[in-house]
Amino acid sequence: MTGNTTFFLIGAFLLLFLLPFFVLRDMKNGKKPADIFTSNIMLFVLFLVSVGEVLRSILSSEAMVHFNQTLFLFIIIFVVSPLLFILFYHLRSDMKKWRNPEEYKYYWVYKFRYIFITVLAIVFAGALYRFYLIYEIVFG
Question: Which residues cross the membrane (predicted)?
Answer without folding.
Answer: 6-24, 36-59, 71-91, 112-135
